[in-house]
Structure prediction request, 312 residues.
Amino acid sequence: MRRFISIVVACLSCHAWAADADYHLTPLAVADGVYAFVGEQADFNPSNGGNIVNTGFIVGTEGVIVIDTGPSRQYGEQMRAAIARITPKPIALVINTHHHPDHFLGNQAFADTPIGALAGTRKGITTEGDAFAENLFRLTGSWMSGTELKAPDQILQAGPLKAGGRSLILLAMKGHTDADLAVFDADSATLFAGDLVFNLRAPTTPHAHLEHWKDTLRALDAFMTTQRVRVLVPGHGPIARNAAPIAWTRDWLTWLDTSLREAAADGLDMNETLTRPLPEVYRNIPVAGAEYRRSVGHLFPAAEAGALQPNN
Prediction:
């Protein structure tokens, strides 16, 4: 943490990015008592301050449940102020869906409230959180001013959960990371899927296991049917009222997996694989080129190793 703070201080003396640091957070009502903040379909940059993520909150009879807290302390503070404009009720629980920085670095703004996550998410935040924050500062600049790591203080388990007077079902899954949490609000039939689901935005893969992820998406698809989900809030991309984003995410992952395996089987090296063109269907998808290149870096070594195994 001290290393991160020193980098922040040094960088603040060199850059004048994001003078107003205003995320212009506007709650979007997606169901009865359920709101989302919809981020840009873009990459991290000094113009958006990392506001590329969907976060949200649920207003219950006794309090508010917050779903993810955004990429910085300032985002979290502005999120909390926006919530207060909707309801005077206290924050009952903050939930971090997984350990990627745009989903938890606003936790400081909720330090006086319970913050919950899966055990694997808490471990990821405590072990990798400082490095994530440092990297995000390099990408977004002074939007990160004052941001420090605040890890969850409660371990959540899969299953039913009453919070703030709302009835939730927590789904402990994996694939995007080793610990992914989806949150279903039974009262409104709204599913916050976190980064298990991307909608018309290329998925990120730094901790991905593609087979597990595809299995999880099949389970989510079934859950959508059995629970008659009315609203689906993906981790990135537009809010949906059907399961189309689940199919879209699965199709991307299937294409990506097949493409990398084929490249490895054909004897291409990583540089050659990086230069392969995207299929036409994905060429105009936000961040598709950048995420493909990052995914090659993350996943191609395993595909290459698999191609070298006997009987492959």
